[in-house]
Structures are given as structure tokens and as C-alpha cells.
Amino acid sequence: MASGVRAGSVSVRPDPEPCRAQDLGLFEVVTRDGAARIGRLHTLHGSINTPMLLPVVNPNLRTIEPREMWDRYGVEALITNSYVIWKHDELRGQALADGIHALLDFPGVVVSDSGTFQSYVYGDVEVGAEEIVAFQRDIGVDIGTMLDVFGRPDMSRAELEHSVEETAARAEQSLDTAGDGLLLNGPVQGGLYDDLRAAAGSLMSSASGEHRGFAVHPIGGIVPLMERQRYRALFRILLAARSTIPPDRPIHLFGCGHPLLFPMAIALGADLFDSAAYAIFARDDRLLTPTGTVKLADVREWPAHSAALFGHTPHEVMAMDSDERSTLLAHHNLEVTQAELARCREAIRNGTIWQLAEQRSHSSPQLRDAFLWVLEQLYELADDPVGVTTLNLMASTNPVRSGGEHLSDDVGMRPHILHLHALLSMRWRVPGSWWDGSEEGPVRVVLVEGAAPPWRDSALGAVVSALVEEPRSVVMVSTPLGPIPFSLEDLSPWCHLEGPDDIWMEAYDNDEITEGLEGLGLDGLPLVRIAPSSDSEHEQTTTVRAWLDRCAVVDKLAVLCGVSPIDGCMLTDGMSSRRSRTDRMVNVHSGGEHILSPRLTDGGLTLALDGARRLNALDPNPPTAFDEPIDDEGSDHPGIPRVWLLDDAIPFVGQGRNVMQGYVLGADPHLTCGQPCLVVDGNGGLVAHGIAVTTALEMAHLKKGIAVRVRDGALKDP
Ligand code: GUN
Fold first, then answer.
1. Is residue 679 part of a domain?
2. Which one of 162, 177, 374, 379 has the fewest CB atoms closer than 10 angstroms to its CB?
3. How many Å is the Cα radius of gyration of the chain?
4. Distance from residue 143's CA to the centre of ligand 1 (Å)
5. Are residues 631 and 573 in the same domain?
6. What's the CA gap between 413 and 17, in Å, rounded?
């Protein structure tokens, strides 16, 4: 038992269950926050829940016993080096005789590397590409690594092209040698060249063997960048490589294991990390913390807590003999690493991974520089591999969130907020008719300033008065993120921005306001800035409010679901609704049918079955199949997004079961995670409606997990 580890707290975990044969090597996305995803990779020694870190275990130097990692820290998978074992006669014999799991005494998933990193450090390795894969297969590794050619960042373009091409040339042979049971890592090289990283991603992900393609794509050649804290280059590589790696392949950052980097890397789509940092830093008397590394000699009190350090002072640890000390520090480092990953996973679950990355970016100047560079990419969306990934990242966020949004200098650049603003400027339109029945264009913009949400309480009086005075007024509310239409006043995050009270009192200058209005096509209209008031004592108040309610439904259908305002108006003709105790619309009826309900948690929409039927009747066709070219007319309002279901699944989904990945034949590209969609058959007939869990691109690739969380089946027995 390692020093500082209390025997009483050790729990012994049972061995993992092997996956079903048909699931071997499949990756599913369970929950996501934009590009960050909680995933599950299925293997014969259990499933790996990602994002996670594979602790590096050197079979010659087991700083923390693999069994303890499994039992005590819940480590589901580790990584070791097959080349080190292959070179060592005794270890090799033992591994071949008893298997790698017995050699390491680890029941979970064993990943192994191939010796490429040794070739980078020592110049060459003695093993052949086929031989090292065969060895990993024969010792029973779960996920091995082919022998790739390490591409250093300082190499010439010609050398890096060679590293990409030679790695790709070895891919199919390696996959064939791996056979049916060994999953393989297909590393992506390419140095600092975006186009080479993208080409490598494409070559490696399209390689197929007799049994399957690569299970995981590690990004290689990045250790020298991390050693020199060149984080901008690191994240640039991740974005460029991801542009061509399909979403059903988890991405591993080879050699990345400092907790400081996890939130940003995960926010940009990294799933797996590996590192010996926990042990190497411990040997050097250094402690990992989520915000950096500290020297034991420099601390009087612990900068980060762990069970390993509990009950010890830095002074006492300093006085230990060096083996005992480094074992204790390695335990601490592993705990901190695991805790930061748990924090990241939790942030994905509650939609705050970007907020966490933003916070962590302040921990180091190099990381801050990298973070700001990523924000520039999100803004520019260049026509290159980095731009492809950043666009996908933004489009894969759910633009509407429940819960508070912490205000910061960078809040307006959070991907889901950029997404919401992009949808607003593309799809929102001024009303086609006004509460008094007039149908001419608007004559002015009225901006309510100095009011805090909920604006239906704080500003309703001023809004109604402005509309009574001039019915053809476009009423907007001022927010720290810019002016928004009053019709969307209960949409989160706008109404859930968290900061001191005076954030709502800020008076923006005319230029700032005009910039915000320009994006919505309102810049040519006279602007009237008004103060809020809550009382609305007009005889027309009821009529005006009914009109505002209808605007809210039409605008949300347009912005969140892509339904044209004309169709939205048709759907809501004669609508009525009840109001909640907080004065919000519930259960919207039209033509005697319950068509939808505004979601009280985030202001989005929940369709009802009759609403889904009526939306489907507007254009009863299935979307284009995944294997056919998309006829992209580029409409701002392409209609409610649809998912085309395979015939076999219709009886289940029609009864209300979720749509599973692998049963989808096509999906509209504007499908938005977290927002409503329809599920249809090959003739465009409605099967169900629900909430999209993944993007259309992901549905085209993923084979496991939920694609659409179904709210109601359309084929239920009466
Ligand atoms: N470990 C760290 N970097 C690399 C790499 O580029 N390739 C392989 N196989 N292992 C690594």
C-alpha cells in the first residue's frame, strides 16, 4: 500500500462486462455541449466513458499499481507501451504467456502505444510496423496503436508530407494484422500545416481493414508543442485535424495530460488524453493543480486538495524519503487530474464547458493567447480546415440554455450565444401585420432600456403604451448582448444573464445600438429609446398582449425551428393560450388543437403531436438521404428539420420509442441539437416528433446511442 493511502477507504470494484460482439469498437455520444461530448467507447474489457485520461503505466516502473487505479480511482482504461514490453525479454514472455491484463494486473481497458514516440526520442526503433501490431494483438491489448511516423513541428513540409503519407501507407496492413479482436489507433500527423492535418485526418479515417477501420484517432506529434507551452499551435492542430475526422471516431491528444489543458481541449472536441505527467512531475517534486504546476518546495500550504495529501503538511512531505514522497505526490497528481476531468464532464452535462474553458484561460498567458485566437476563428469562420471545424462547433451547440449565464468580457463569443445570434439575424423578421390589423411596414424601432428581466414584468407597460401610440413599432429590449426583439424576451440565455444589477442599467451609445439593429435589418428605421414601466392600463392592452403572444410563437418557430413566418402565422391563426402563475404562455391551441407549449425552463418550444402534424403537412417529404448530394437552396427558413427513419424502426418510434443512431437514412442539415424535429418515413409521413440529440452529420456516421429523444409517437394506438 502506497504511503498516505488509507486502506479503509479502498473499495474493490468488480471486473468490467465485455461489450456485445456487434458493439466492439463503436463510439456513442451520450450528452454534448457543442463539440464537447460525453461519449462511450465499447470494448471487450468494458466501455470507456469519455472524456477521460489514460494514465501511462510503465511496466518497468509502476508508480501507482494499475489494480489500485482500477479499485481506488475508478480508472476505466490505461495506456502502456507495447514496444517497451516487446524489447524486454522477460516482460515479453510473460505478456505472451499470460496476456497484458494479467501482466499489469488490470481488469479494465488496456490501450498500448507502438514505439513511435521512442523513435522520436531515440532516433529509431527496431521493430517492424506489422510485427508491433501483431504483438499487441497477441498479448490481448484492447486498443493498440499502429507504428506511425512521428512528425515534429519543426520539420519541413516535405518531411511532414512523408510522415503523413508513410503513416497512411501502413494503415491498411496494420488494420488487417490487428484482426477482429484488436481495435487500433490511427494517428494523425502533419506538423503545423492545417492542410496536412486535414489530409491526414481524411486518409486515416477512410482506411479500412478486413474487419473495421480505426477505432480512435490520436493527434500525434504534439508533445514538443506542449513542452514549450505552444497552446495556440496545439489547438490549431486539433481544429484542423477534426475538419476531416468523422464524428464517430473519438479523438485522443497523444501525450496531453496536464489538467490545465482539459477544458479547452474538450470544448474543441478532444475525447481522450494520456500522460505520464502525474508520475513524472511527482518524481520532480511538483504538484499538479487545475490551473498550473507548483513546486513542493515553494508551498507552505496545499494549493489543491486531495485524499492523498489529506493529513500531511507540505513540510512533512518534504521530509519523506524520495520514493515515498514521489508515490504520494503521484497519487495526488492522479486525483487532481481525475477531478478536473469529472468537472469537465459535469460542465458538458450542464452546458458550461465553454465557460469553464474561458475561466481556465486566465490561468496562463499562453493559454489565454490560445483561447483568444480560438475566439477569432469563431468570429471569422474562414474557408479553411480550421473554419470548417469552428463552424461545425458553433452549429452543434444548443442555442437555448436553461440556467444562468455568467457574464464576462468574453460572454458574447460563447459558441451557443454566437449560434443564437446567427439564427436571430438570419431567421427573425419584422411582423407582417400589427395588432390593429394594419399590414404596412414598420415605421419605427422602440428600444426599451434600463429594464431587468423578466421584461414581461418590468417593461410590459412601456411596450404596450408604445404599441398603442404607434402600432407599427418594432419593440426591442436592450441586453448586455445587444438589442433583442421583445417577442423573445423569455428566451435563455438572454433573460438569464447573471451579473450585478447594474448590467441592465447600462446606457449604450447610438453606434453600439445601431450595430445591434443592423444585424436584424432595422438600421434604416427611426429609433425611439424609452424607459421601462410595468403598468399597462390601456383599453387595448388585452388585444395588444394577444398579438405579442402570437408574435412570440411565430418568432420562436422561425428562429429555433426554421419555420417561415408566413407558415408560423398560418399555424397560429386564432391561437389561444393559458397563462402560468409567472404570467407566461402555456399550452398554445389553434383551430381547437393543442399545437405547442413554450418551455418554461429556457423559453424554447415543445411541440405537441397536433402541432407536429400541422408542421409536417406544410412539406410532407423526407429529407435527402445521407448518400445523396444535398440540394441546398440556402433558404433562411427551410422548415422544421426532419429525420428520415429506416422502415424497420417505424413501429417502435411510432409508438414513442427514441430514434437510435444507425436507423436514420437522412436528416436535414439545419437540424439543431436540443431543438424540436420531426421523424418521418420514406414518403414523408409523420412517425414521431422529438428533440434532436446530435447533428445531421453525426447521424450520418454514428451507429450507437440516441439520435432523437422522442416526445410523442404519431402511430400510437388510439
Ligand atoms: N506519443 C506521443 N506522441 C505520439 C505520436 O505522435 N505517435 C505515437 N504513436 N505515440 C505518441
1. yes
2. 379
3. 28
4. 14
5. no
6. 43
Q: Which domain holds residue 526?
A: 421-606
Q: pLDDT tens, 482-523?
A: 999 999 999 999 999 999 988 998 888 888 899 899 999 998
Answer positive or negative: Cα dihedral of 196, 199, 205, 207: negative
Give the total number of structural domains in the chain: 3
- Look at residue 680 and tell me if it is in a domain: yes
- Does the CB atom of residue 214 touch ligand 1 within 6 A? no
Q: Are residues 550 and 580 in the same domain?
A: yes
Mutate to test the pocket of ligand 1, among 112, 113, 222, 225 (most ligand atoms within 8 A of CB): 113
Cβ atoms 647, 683 nearer than 8 A: no
Cell 510496423 found at:
129
- Which is the closest atom of ligand 1 to the Cα of 220? 6
pTM recorded for the entire structure: 0.95
For residue 150, which atom of ligand 1 is closest to its CA? 6
In the listed set 587, 606, 625, which residue is the last one of a domain according to the structure?
606
Domain C-terminal end among 562, 577, 606: 606
| Ligand 1 atom closest to Cα of residue 222 | 3
* Grid coordinates given for 671: 437540424
Residue 411 CA: distances (Å) to CA of 44, 417, 718:
43, 8, 48
* Ligand 1 centroid distance, CA of 24 (Å): 24
Region 226-250 average pLDDT: 98
What number of CA atoms fall less than 13 Å from residue 40's CA on the CB side?
14
Site to substitute for ligand 1 among 111, 117, 184, most atoms within 8 A of C-beta: 117
160 and 294 co-located in one domain: yes
Interatomic CA distance for residues 711 and 594, integer angstroms: 14
60-85 tens-digit pLDDT: 888 999 999 999 999 999 999 999 99
- The residues carrying an active-site annotation are 113
Q: Which residue among 54, 83, 188, 223 has the greatest number of ligand 1 atoms within 8 angstroms of its CB, and so is best to mutate?
A: 223
**Distance from C-alpha of 543 to C-alpha of 551, rounded to nearest angstrom:** 12
